[in-house]
Amino acid sequence: MFDIYGGPVFGMARQQFLQAADILEIPTDQRDRLLYPKRAIAVTCPIHRDDGSTVVYEGYRVQHHLSLGPAKGGVRFSPHVDIGEVAALSLWMSWKCALMNLPYGGAKGGVRVDPYSLSPKELEALSRRFMQELIPFVGPHVDVMAPDIGTNEQVMAWFMDTYSNDAGQTVTEIVTGKPVSCGGTVGRREATGRGVTHTIVRAAEEINLNLAQSTAVIQGFGNVGSVAANELHALGVKILAISDHTAAYHDPKGLNIPEIIDYVSKHGVLKGYSSECLTDPNAILTIKCDVLVPAAVERVITEEIANKIECRILAEAANGPTTLEADAVFAKRPEVFIIPDILCNSGGVTVSYFEWVQDLQQFFWEEEEIISRMKKIMDKGFYDTVKSAKELKVSNRMAATCAGLRRVNAAKQARGLFP
Hints:
Elements: H1 8-24, H2 31-35, E1 39-48, E2 54-63, E3 71-78, H3 83-99, E4 105-112, H4 120-134, E5 143-147, H5 153-167, H6 188-207, E6 215-219, H7 223-234, E7 238-243, E8 248-250, H8 257-267, E9 291-294, H9 303-308, E10 313-315, H10 324-330, E11 337-339, H11 341-344, H12 347-361, H13 367-392, H14 396-415
Parallel strand pairs: 3-4, 3-5, 6-7, 6-9, 9-10, 10-11
Antiparallel strand pairs: 1-2, 2-4, 7-8
Helix pairs in contact: 1-3, 1-14, 3-14, 4-5, 6-7, 6-12, 6-13, 12-13, 13-14
């Protein structure tokens, strides 16, 4: 059934769902409706390259459900995108939004392309074509897109402009994560990384860890990882190691994070920053530290890695970084406090919600208010998860997933099936 959603990433999300459904004792005949997406769209995106040739890219948008409000989720430009991965990400987004009590269903999108192989003109052409193809299926009250891996504020501005030109009026609320000059909100770019750090602070309190005397390792130094690194550094945490897709650095004395962030802002990547601190990127996850932050892609923490990890807090800034086999290992390692992805990285969608609300009202808030509201919502999600995990005697991941699934299921049951 629904074979189009094959692949290891959706398989992992499906198993997590089934575990939560068993805990909640959801009847078997209700599960497929909760698991499988409401709508999956595949589009072709032809563009002219700078050399005059024509090339066609494949794009996807999956809307998991719309029972609580419009679908919400990012768009990634990556050579590894497939519809199974996008469907899994939409599923996690559903539980994340419900856990944070946001009026959204989950969605995700992507184009199979290496964005670094495109010129700025080609990237604009692809961004606009992707949005143009999706116009019949999206809208401010249907599906609201946001940035993800390989996309950014500029791509969101092109999305918004394309949709607005079709509508005949400016529609800022069609996307979030866009530039402030185009109706974006202050604090959105930093929101996910700030949220990651905030949950780490709460986890440290939970296990009595003094962050000012602790160490951290961060895999992935994009928008989320770099912001989290900067926030942790400001709290006195010694950042031992970082990496991105171009390089990895390790210094037992601690890395100069402000200097590295300045370097990346000028060069785009970590490569070339230093030759003295270079290390094996495959070994970065097993460096002994207090806080480990996987902030790159899915399924990087395997069973083998889980057995070798030496940290006290595992903060999942990326989506789905821990495999099912690794979770089984962590079930026997209670000394590792896991902040599950749908909680840890929820600051981004929370502030995206604020951006959407501000655009709809055409009334904007100060950054201090946005940060305060984000922390308040994330605190509730954190404490509800920890409390539920203890009461149900399950992992933090299952507790968070159950909380999200319970809310979505309640909405679907109350609304009923359309005849």
